[in-house]
Amino acid sequence: MSKTSTDQAPIEFGIFGYIHEARQTYGLRAQDYLRYRRFCAHRLRNVRSGVKLTQGTSTAFRKKEVTADMVKKPEHLEILLLQAERAWAFAMDLRELYSRTEEPRQRYHLIRRLRAACKAGEQLAAAAAASSGTCDGRTSLEAQAYKLQMQSQLFFELGEWTSALDCAVLSRVISEQLALLGSSRHYALAHAMIEALDPIVRLAAYRARMAGAQQSQPAELAAQWYSTKMLGDVTRAEQAIPGYSDITAALDALVASANSSASGDAQVLAYANSLKWRGGVVSYASQELAVLIKDAQGALQTATEGDDALDVAATAFKRVKKAAHRCHSEAIAASAKIHSTASEALESAYLAVQLYSTCALHLIAIAKGVGQAKDIAAKLGIAIEAADKPPLIGRSHAWILDSAAGGKRGSSAVSKRGGQRGGVTDNLAESTQVVVLYDMVRKNLSSLKTSAAAMLERMMPATSRAVHGHQIIEEVAAAEAYYGCVRGYYSAALHASAAHGKLLDALALLDSTLSEDIPHALALATAASSHAVSQSDSLPVDDLWCRAVMVTNSDIDSAEHAIKRAIPIVSRLCAITASADSPAAQRKSGPSDWVSDPTGRPVMVANELAASASKSLAGSLPQYVPKLVDLTATEFVPVPIKPLFYDLAASSIDFDMELIGRRSGKSSTAAAGGSSSKLGSIIGSLWGSR
Which of 64, 249, 349, 469 is close enough to 284 for a disulfide, judged by CB 3.0 to 4.6 Å? Predict the structure, then answer.
């Protein structure tokens, strides 16, 4: 409850919050209606005394009603609410007593108390009516929802199922709209009131012979009844619920006011309180967050591959992530006090928005890195996309970078884009920058996979299924494996360049990428494509996801084709280099010598596996391999066996000491160690004597 600063300002009185706090604090957590009724009576007497509306003295009673004209303070609304709650608590106490005794007088008394609660609820709704301007829009609608809830319980007890369903459904509709137009606490409070109406909706729909009442959920039944019996037949709704048109008009006015105060753009309604992503819809309860999502989507929609435009979109998504984190913390705090299924779902919804913004931020970083790397690779002529064309650059042997193409410093494509970007410095060689950029892409994908797994673990299964969380992990893992293959290809090109000249290292990188990384990436991409998400709406984040993360088998085939073309080139270069350096290669040198000094590398010999392999594999295997070990020049040195340490379990073996003594020419007593000296006992114990 909050007081207004002046009498002219609309009264703000949180009816849902007041009811929930009072019920949970004073008895209803343990279903003690008597204690709650006593609290309502005591609190009512104190509030009346505070506003000078006490009903007589200790000897005389003078009834004083609170009318709509008298309402100037929140305490006047509190009086009417406490009267309704006191009568309702008495009725619920009588219903429990009647369920045990089934005495008709108790049921009659129960009905009278519910009628009194409905009368007080009607007075509360009339005092807080939006047309009078006394209270704000939310307070007025909460009073209407509370009045309809009391009436639905009365009609339910009387057996008037259609009337009970009308009141319960309209109260539920009002509460749902109020939940979406407030904070996380308002959302939890409204859904706590909705859950109290679910049993009435379900049983009244069944008794009214509504189609699907036994199988459908209360939310589905209420939506169906509201669309067919109220929106579809306004005349009937006016007859069933007096003031129906005023209630709907006040509800529409509150929604329009919330949207206009959030943003002047009418398109915000398309994003309000729902996030469309990966073919699913996630609902939340923050208009501010809806506006931030709309702005971020618009920034990404207009962004191109340029860094400046993507940086603006990244800043917008950072604001979305920060707001979603704050809303999630508020939802956790509200759920701790107001527990309901809807409040738990709201926590998962804000986690989904956090995951959405996290994916968008990583996608922007990945798109920037891949774009820069592709530009540099295309400039150098070693791009995977152009693997079917002769990639000759400055040498007679294809695919190998010379010092003029790959060794320049300070004139890279990254420096042209505006200095240092994403940790890549300007003084790196262009060929090195490609490898560094793809390393950054893999790190972003790994970080995205870890963050997504942590958020999905805390998310409710229904929300995770809505955004296809399992497919996110699969697709990111496939993209990480694919970019690992691409990184291996460009790393081999860097090793084989004239600036480095490490042909054997390049050959090993290509072989390991072809034999291990490519099959692994192909398996992950096949598994991810089998669970691909079909998206009917083309949204900016989904489009960026398809370009940067979604990996197809054709992408992996292109990388495999490029690697297969590079392997024979590097193999021939290894053979040519070995034949040119054969005099120096005849001398004996260790591995550390020829790794640090390429002139001391071993002789290249024919690959026996390539000669015996099938035709399909012969093209992918190198024709020459380095001769690292010469077994013909190896000398073996015998190593003597030391019996003392040969068998550690020798002391546990029972030897025939008499036979040993006869063969050694010693007596059996001496052999057994019975009368030997101390030195003999020590030596005997070492040899296993007992």
Answer: 349
Residue 131 to residue 396: CA distance in whole angstroms: 88
Chain-centroid distance of CA 487 in Å reads 28
pLDDT at position 214 is 86
80/475 Cα distance (integer angstroms): 58
- The amino acid that residue 159 corresponds to is G
The angle formed by the CA atoms of residues 538, 541 and 542, to the nearest 5 degrees, is 45
Q: Residue 119 contacts by C-beta under 8 Å, 6 or more apart in sequence? A: none
Q: 0.70 exceeded by the pTM?
A: no
3-state secondary structure 143-200: HHHHHHHHHHHHHHHHCCHHHHHHHHHHHHHHHHHHHHCCCHHHHHHHHHHHHHHHHH
Q: Which residue has the tokens 């603006």?
A: 312
Query: How far is the CA of 286 from the CAs of 280, 330, 372, in angstroms?
Result: 18, 11, 37
CA distance 142 to 659: 107
| Residues, the chain | 690
Using CA atoms, how far apart are residues 656 and 688, in angstroms rounded to an integer?
A: 11
- Look at the block and give the residue holding tokens 């958020």: 455
CA distance 542 to 551: 14
State the Cα–Cα distance between residues 457 and 449, nearest whole angstrom.
Answer: 12
pLDDT tens digits, 239-260: 999 889 889 888 888 877 766 6
Q: Are 585 and 603 in contact (CB under 8 A)?
A: yes
pLDDT tens for 16-41 read: 999 999 998 998 888 899 999 999 99
Instruction: Provide the total of helices (H) and of strands (E) in the chain, helices listed first.
Output: 29, 4
pLDDT tens for each residue of 51-73: 888 887 777 778 888 888 888 88
Contact 268, 259 (CB under 8 A): yes
Neighbouring C-alpha atoms within 13 Å toward the C-beta of 442: 15
The one-character DSSP state at 10 is P
Which amino acid appears at position 351 of this protein?
L
Per-residue model confidence as pLDDT tens digits over 611-638: 666 665 555 666 666 666 665 655 666 6
- CA-based nearest residue to 543, from 349, 302, 378, 272: 302
| Alpha helices by DSSP H, 532-677 | 540-548, 553-580, 582-585, 591-596, 608-612, 615-618, 657-664, 668-672
Which residues lie closer than 8 Å to 394 by C-beta, 6 or more apart? 401, 402, 404, 405
From residue 449, how far is each of 40, 446, 549 by CA, in Å?
A: 54, 5, 12
Give CA–CA dist 179/187, Å, rounded: 4
Question: In sequence order, which residues have a C-beta less than 8 Å from that of residue 686 and are 6 or more positions away?
Answer: 644
8 Å CB contact between 320 and 361 = no
Question: Rounded to an integer, what distance in angstroms lies between the CA atom of residue 56 and that of residue 64?
Answer: 9
Residue whose entry in the numeric block shows the structure tokens 């010693």? 666
Query: Could you give the angle at which helices 184-207 and 15-25 cross, rounded to 10 degrees?
Result: 80
User: Is-contact 496 400, C-beta < 8 A?
Assistant: yes
Share of the chain above pLDDT 70, in %: 73
